[in-house]
UniProtKB/TrEMBL annotation:
InterPro entries recorded: Restrct_endonuc-II-like (IPR011335)
Protein name, per record: DUF559 domain-containing protein
Gene3D superfamilies for the chain: VSR Endonuclease
Amino acid sequence: MIHLSRKRTDAVPRRRGVIGHPLDIAEADVVDVNGVPVTSIARTWLDLAAMLPIEDLIVAGDQIVSEYIRSFGVPKIAMFSKADLERFIASHGRCWGIQKARLAIGRLRVGVDSPPETRVRLLLEDAGTPEFTVNHGVRDFTGAVAFWTDLACEAYRTCIEYDGEHHLTPEQQAKDMDRDAKAAELGWAQVKLNRLDLRDGGSRAIAKVRKALIRQGWRPGSQELSYNSGDFRGAESA
């Protein structure tokens, strides 16, 4: 099914396999791709806000603003920067989906590799765990980055890896084993998740992460203590 939009002053497309939309749109929101006029990235994301659940909208947004430079691989350049997307949304008043877009943009994070990573992060945020940062470089005792992880809660030295199908290759498994060893050496609890953990509302994923956080000193519902606080060390020795 193709969604085809035209200005409100033009006739709405009506044909098999096409859903037509009347649209109020500025000239700046239309770009040319191989001779075809399409909505800009920012405008497309705003239009999606009228159609997608907020979780899916955040997933799409994370991919749009994702950028990073790591100690391996090639740098990733954002399709559209988060700051520019924020300005774009702020510049729009009443339109379909604008309230959802404003809610979603506050939950976007820069540096996400894959949609499952976003879904895991949102799942944990909604479950009330401490915040996890994305695409995090864990440093060793010298200050050098020892390994990279999908999601990390540095306060409780807990990290999460989402294992997709590419983790089944021999080369990736060797890299994963090296990362596992470094995480253990530095005192980090590592939680590995896969698509099965996200079934049924992600209850299994939440349980795994909460268990790891608790082992690392987190106490649900109490004042947060961390490895970096004197309060945590005092609690351990009390």
